[in-house]
Specification:
Number of strands: 20
Pfam family, one: PAS_4
GO biological process, one term: phosphorelay signal transduction system
Protein name: Response regulator
Number of domains: 4
Strand order of the largest sheet: 7-6-10-9-8-11
Helix content: 40-55%
Radius of gyration: 30 Å
Distance between the termini: 68 Å
CATH architecture of the largest domain: 2-Layer Sandwich
CATH class of the largest domain: Alpha Beta
Largest sheet: 6 strands, mixed
Structural class: alpha/beta
Keywords: Phosphoprotein, Two-component regulatory system
Shape: globular
Length: 559
């Protein structure tokens, strides 16, 4: 309501604030150090529809909150019955005012069975405070769905782990991404020795080729596949299994699931197996010898074939250190660990003095950047892994890194000088990230995928490289210098001005509330959470750049 005699400048400012909050699809409440309301946007009525009237400038916060409580709080009953918040009137009002005095506060309140709103509260150094109301119903639904999916995944994993027969899951690159306990027992291998590997890593070539052909057929057609096998297991024991393969997942996110049911007991009774197991009618048994010949054994597993290659693990996580070093020692490597920069320097100095060659330094990405710089300055090959990769993929990552030939020093120097920006005008991925360790993690993932990419170290550079290099997708860390990720994304959207829209993916830390909503408000298309996962990034790339794009480009480039 306009007050008689109000100053024109004040009216203009109020109208401007109303316009801004409408553009943000929210409502704003501004109050001073005396807990008196200075401004309440007209959109507030959409968030508090039960109130008989909206607060006017000069209203005390206590009176406003009393009115909110008396009309059902933030979640009035839609049936018309009066519903109060669970605590008493004075306690609720005191709690709300206390939250308004915090420097920064984020809460989410339920307004109806399927409607939620967020309250972002800020107290400025001047004493003025601001409370921003926003509808986060869609975000809350997505979050609830995500939690539900995680629970289903956990339940599924528990069920699979307790099945008495082997279950193996391969991704679209025919790499094993999940196995149950029965699989580990069947192959006499730890899960770490299967996960991240392909069939030719754990099977003889002929058998690996046959399994890959069947898996490819299932992946491409979606038609289930069954085969009965007389199997010689890796330990030499014999059994008979019915192997079934089926495709699971969604388009662009398919997996091949393999189940191996033991039918040796049925055969020993003399009964016809097709009476017990569907899929065996008219099918002859094939011979599958899973034993690897000595020449086919993975090069990094037996100690004599590793040549006792030396690996230095840099991590300050005690469990990761103990498990990682133990795993590498069992695989035949000469392994040790450094817990900080001082220990790393000491080990490298001793190795130089005694002329002992260290083949690889594995750095936990959570370590200080000085550790990475020290390792790189030593001239030793360096592999940076996220903590979850160290726990799950360490052995496979080390074996593959050591199996590839290292470039000559001159070539390596040239590559380092040119690692960031390709001479090609257009790129596939623009990464906006100021943390040097995360830059290396992004680089390793993108190089593994075969994408052309560039890295921007601040928000202004991100906008400039987006304009100059025309990336097909942008990975935007939100905590950038110069312009933060939200500001850089908004600037890009302004510059597009109705033209072709570049997908922007926000890179977030899970613990910070409100960042997801800020990403949507800044015009981002999706988010991905740290620690970074190749699988999570691949899902975003396939969604926004097409499922077959990477495979097509690799064939074209002869990769």
């Amino acid at each position: 309501m306009t007050q008689t005699g109000a100053h024109p400048d004040g009216l203009a400012q109020a109208a401007l604030l109303d316009l801004l909050t409408e553009a943000m699809s929210g409502a704003v409440l501004i109050y001073d150090r005396n807990d008196t309301i200075v401004f309440a946007s007209t959109q507030l009525r959409a968030f508090l529809p039960a109130l008989p009237l909206m607060p006017s400038p000069g209203t005390r916060l206590k009176d406003f909150l009393s009115l909110v409580y008396d009309h059902g709080g933030y979640f009035p009953d839609v049936t018309g019955r009066l519903r109060h918040p669970p605590m008493g009137r004075e306690e609720w009002i005191t709690t709300e005012i206390a939250s308004l005095w915090r420097e920064r506060s984020e809460t989410v309140e339920r307004q109806a069975l399927d409607r939620w709103m967020s309250l972002s509260k800020r107290r400025m150094p001047s004493g003025y405070g601001l409370c921003l109301f926003r509808d986060v119903s869609e975000h809350k639904k997505r979050e609830d769905q995500w939690r539900s999916d995680l629970e289903r995944v956990q339940i599924t994993e528990d069920i699979l782990d307790n099945l008495p027969f082997p279950i193996l899951v391969m991704d679209r690159n025919f790499t094993y991404v999940a196995v149950n306990k029965a699989t580990c027992s069947f192959y006499n291998l730890a899960a770490d020795e299967i996960l991240g590997r392909k069939n030719d890593d754990i099977h003889p070539p002929e058998l690996a080729a046959r399994i890959d052909r069947a898996s490819r057929q299932v992946l491409e057609t979606g038609i289930p596949f069954s085969i009965s096998e007389q199997v010689i297991r890796p330990d030499g024991s014999r059994t008979a299994v019915l192997t079934r393969k089926l495709r699971a997942g969604k388009p662009g996110r398919y997996f091949v699931v393999t189940a191996m049911e033991d039918i040796s007991e049925v055969l020993s009774t003399g009964e016809q197996p097709e009476w017990v197991f569907n899929g065996l009618e008219g099918v002859d048994f094939v011979h599958s010898d899973m034993r690897l010949k000595r020449s086919e054994q993975p090069a990094a597993v037996p100690a004599e074939r590793t040549g006792r290659r030396r690996v230095l693990l840099v991590t300050d996580d005690g469990k990761v250190e103990a498990d990682g070093v133990s795993l590498l020692l069992r695989a035949g490597f000469d392994a040790t660990a450094a817990r900080d920069l001082r220990e790393l320097r000491g080990i490298l100095d001793i190795a130089r003095e005694r002329q002992v060659d260290i083949d690889l330094v594995v750095v936990d990405s959570a370590m200080d950047i000085e550790c990475l710089e020290e390792a790189e300055a030593s001239g030793i090959d360096v592999l940076v892994l996220e903590a979850f990769q160290v726990e799950r993929e360490l052995l496979v990552a080390v074996q593959r890194r050591l199996a590839r030939p290292r470039p000559a020093p001159a070539a390596r120097k040239a590559a380092e000088d040119d690692w960031q920006i390709s001479s090609v005008a257009a790129i596939d991925v623009l990464v906006a990230e100021d943390n040097e360790v995360n830059q290396i993690v992004f680089s390793q993932i993108l190089e593994g995928f075969g994408y052309r990419y560039a890295i921007a170290c601040d928000g202004e550079e991100a906008v400039r490289l987006w304009r100059d290099l025309k990336p097909r997708i942008v990975l935007m860390d939100i905590t950038l210098p110069m312009l933060n990720g939200f500001e850089a994304a908004s600037r890009i959207r302004e510059l597009e001005s109705g033209g072709e829209r570049t997908p922007i993916i926000g890179v977030l830390t899970p613990a910070v509330e409100g960042d997801r909503d800020a990403c949507w408000a800044a015009g981002m298309d999706d988010v991905v959470l740290k620690p970074l996962s190749p699988d999570a990034l691949d899902e975003k790339f396939r969604r926004f750049m097409g499922a077959g794009d990477r495979e097509t480009r690799r064939r074209g480039e002869g990769r």
